[in-house]
Design goal:
The complex is a heterodimer of chains A (136) and B (291).
Chain A (H helix, E strand, L loop, with lengths): L2 E7 L2 E8 L1 E6 L2 E5 L3 E7 L2 E8 L2 E16 L1 E11 L5 H17 L3 H27 L1
Parallel strand pairs in A: 1-8
Antiparallel strand pairs in A: 1-2, 3-4, 3-6, 5-7, 6-7, 7-8
Chain B lengths: L3 H56 L15 E7 L9 H18 L5 E7 L1 H8 L5 E5 L12 H12 L5 E9 L5 E9 L17 E3 L2 H77 L1
Parallel strand pairs in B: 1-2, 1-4, 2-3
Antiparallel strand pairs in B: 4-5
Classes of the chains: A alpha+beta (136), B alpha/beta (291).
Chain lengths: 136, 291
């Protein structure tokens, strides 16, 4: 029995389909979800979400938010969700440099936490973009 | 009867009005597209969030998080979202009527709560000030392209007022966007976070596994959910405003064109009558001379 996966971000419905397996960046590490998983709610970290379906794999950048799992349904409510195919490597590098500069210049502790998270997201985005290119 | 010059003047001014309303229609139409796209894109997230929170609040106890706590409603806050500017047809009037109806219904109950208003948008504040209900806070409307961060101040206010016990319940009134032609005033419970009607069926009362703990997850999730709810209402209202304005301006332009038609007819008739009168005068003058 496949897994019904919905990925939403405040801007849009980013993904909805039946899949075989999804691997999520949980706040305390990677989380693999197969059908008939126990009911679970957890916060998401920053990282790569991988979707497996019939031998193919898709990848997305996820940053923050929550996931709800019940048996054969997974709802990912992410603060940010980008398909790897949408990520432009040059722009990702640019964004990472900008984020590094922001971290350098941030003074306020609240601000610093925010820009650090932005930098982590930017680094992850760049890594996903680079990996996609190396795979061809 | 009005002189030819007067009528020409009126045709000119109506034509100017038509030009202005036509321009406003075009502006509203382009904003409307953006505003409608924004709300349509935001709904899936907000809907999923509402579903999940509904299921969660049904299985965890109220004591797990103060935002879930149901108290006897003695004091109630009503967040009323309207527009800053007019020329939107009956949009704001309908929302305000919904507020007054709600207030009247609540006042009839055996334990009528005290009601305070928090208004967003000038039109609602101006109209409701006359109703005599106290307005605890007012926010200007959030512009034509509200961002998620723009609702932070309002969200913090309602969450704090709920947690401090200033209000035991907070409802949200806004104009929900149905289509370009239809906008409907909507009353939505904001706090305490309520479990909507339970989905019929399966394992709904099963426990959830929370990672790392229910308290940790909910203390993140619940305030965020309130912000999402408020943001959605703002986007709905915004799409409604732009749509209502586009339609109002289109109607105004159509009416102006109709009026120009009518006035042109009067103008031609008057001109015709003047010519006829002059010809009769000349003819009768000539006849008198010939006589």
């Amino acid at each position: 029995m496949p897994l019904q996966l919905d990925i939403v971000s405040p801007e849009r419905l980013a993904f909805t389909d039946e899949v075989d397996e999804v691997i999520l960046p949980g706040i305390d590490g990677q989380l693999g979800i197969l059908p008939h998983h126990t009911r679970l709610i957890t916060a998401l970290g920053i990282g790569e979400l991988r979707i497996r379906k019939g031998g193919t794999e898709q990848s997305m950048l996820i940053s923050g938010g929550f996931v709800e799992v019940r048996s054969d349904r997974v709802v990912v409510m992410a603060d940010l969700a980008e398909h790897s195919a949408e990520i432009d490597e040059a722009r990702a590098i640019e964004a990472r440099k900008q984020a590094e500069a922001d971290v350098e210049s941030a003074r306020d502790p609240v601000d610093l936490a925010r820009v650090r998270a932005a930098l982590q997201t930017a680094l992850m985005r760049e890594r996903i973009a680079t990996r996609r290119r190396s795979r061809g | 009867m009005a002189s030819l010059k007067d009528i020409r003047g009126r045709i000119g001014s109506v034509r100017n009005i038509a030009q202005i309303t036509r321009a406003m229609e075009m502006v509203a139409a382009s904003r409307m597209k953006r505003a409608q796209d924004a709300i349509i894109a935001a709904r899936p997230y907000s809907d999923r969030m509402r579903d999940v929170l509904g299921r969660v609040s049904a299985v965890v106890g109220e004591e797990v998080h103060p935002l879930l706590a149901r108290r006897p409603v003695r004091r109630m806050g009503l967040v009323v979202i309207t527009t800053d500017r007019g020329l939107v047809g009956a949009l704001n009037a309908n929302a305000i009527r919904a507020v007054l109806r709600l207030v009247a219904e609540l006042a009839e109950g055996p334990e009528a709560p005290e009601i305070e208003l928090i208004t967003v948008g000038r039109k609602g504040r101006d109209a409701l000030r006359r109703s005599g209900l106290p307005i605890a806070a007012h926010f200007a409307q959030l512009g034509t392209r509200p961002a998620f961060g723009d609702v932070t101040a309002l969200t913090r206010l309602v969450v704090d007022d709920f947690l401090s016990g200033r209000y035991d319940q907070i409802d949200l009134v806004y104009s929900s966007f149905v289509s370009t032609l239809v906008q409907r005033p909507e009353v939505h419970r904001l706090l305490p976070i309520a479990s909507p009607a339970q989905e019929s069926g399966e394992e709904e009362n099963d426990e959830y596994l929370f990672e790392p703990s229910p308290e940790a997850v909910l203390s993140h999730l619940l305030p965020h959910y309130v912000a999402v709810d408020v943001y959605r209402a703002v986007l709905e209202n915004n799409a409604s405003e732009q749509s209502a304005q586009m339609i109002a301006m289109r109607n105004a332009t159509d009416n102006a064109h109709e009026l120009i038609g009518d006035l042109t007819l009067v103008y031609n008739k008057t001109r015709q009558a003047t010519i006829t009168r002059e010809m009769i005068e000349i003819a009768s003058g000539a006849e008198a001379l010939a006589g």
